[in-house]
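Section 5: illustrative case.
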């Protein structure tokens, strides 16, 4: 099932920061931390904009009959940021399944010219300013659109809507998530590490963010059973590699769907989503 979270669990995402500095010290040396150059937002308190809510969102999009997408997105975000407004819309937020991306990193943060987003703004409809024009960038609402446009509105409303969305890694200074392993290896060479030392370094980075993710999901009740990785090929997707390196692929069921920026048809994407969100229910009933 896609476990429904409570008000206290929702609010806890806003009230807790990542405790990044203390957690990083468990897995990395000071030299390694300095060499990586993590974004400053990881060190912020919740009040300063470093809460879990600043790195995450929910797959919740209501039709608001607003013609301009930017204003519709702002209204949707306003609702997402208020438990009371969500209740007025009978909105349910869920965390049995979690949609998992790669890196809440430099490219995403830089869109607004600052390193932190508003609560639950991540993954939502955003625009990148190019001179005097705004260019819409890919966003996760494509998952909803794929289900609605293929006649699966009921499945979206009853199963997928409100699913928690977050990134495995947060604040790593690369513009492109899949570049993270390459960057880690480059840093290993700069630190004159042997191949074995570089592998240990890589694994420890994964363990660091694995602990942060587990703590994050614990705030939501610890009822998550399935991580739905956004990026279809589990053999080459770096998130799957990260999960294998820290053992979370044994703690959670892991399944993959195409990334929302990819190019599958609505039918293909809808089928992937339905299969991913039905697997646990089928396995329990068999």
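Designed sequence:
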């Amino acid at each position: 099932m896609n476990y429904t979270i409570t008000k206290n669990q929702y609010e806890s995402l806003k009230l807790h920061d990542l405790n990044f500095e203390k957690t990083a010290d468990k897995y990395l040396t000071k030299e390694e931390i300095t060499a990586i150059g993590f974004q400053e937002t990881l060190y912020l308190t919740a009040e300063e904009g470093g809460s879990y809510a600043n790195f995450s969102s929910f797959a919740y999009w209501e039709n608001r009959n607003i013609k301009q997408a930017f204003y519709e997105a702002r209204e949707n975000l306003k609702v997402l940021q208020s438990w009371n407004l969500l209740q007025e819309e009978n909105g349910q937020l869920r965390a049995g399944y979690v949609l998992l991306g790669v890196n809440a990193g430099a490219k995403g943060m830089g869109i607004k010219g600052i390193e932190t987003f508003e609560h639950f703004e991540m993954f939502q409809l955003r625009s990148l300013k190019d001179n005097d024009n705004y260019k819409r960038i890919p966003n996760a609402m494509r998952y909803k659109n794929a289900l609605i446009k293929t006649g699966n509105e009921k499945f979206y409303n009853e199963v997928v809507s409100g699913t928690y969305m977050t990134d495995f890694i947060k604040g790593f200074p690369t513009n492109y998530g899949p570049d993270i392993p390459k960057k880690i290896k480059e840093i290993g060479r700069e630190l004159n590490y042997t191949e074995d030392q570089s592998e240990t370094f890589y694994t420890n980075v994964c363990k660091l963010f694995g602990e942060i993710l587990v703590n994050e999901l614990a705030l939501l009740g610890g009822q998550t059973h399935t991580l739905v990785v956004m990026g279809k090929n589990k053999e080459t997707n770096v998130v799957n590699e990260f999960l294998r390196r820290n053992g979370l692929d044994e703690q959670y069921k892991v399944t993959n769907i195409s990334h929302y920026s990819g190019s599958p048809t609505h039918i293909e994407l809808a089928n992937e989503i339905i299969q991913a969100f039905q697997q646990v229910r089928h396995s329990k009933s068999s």
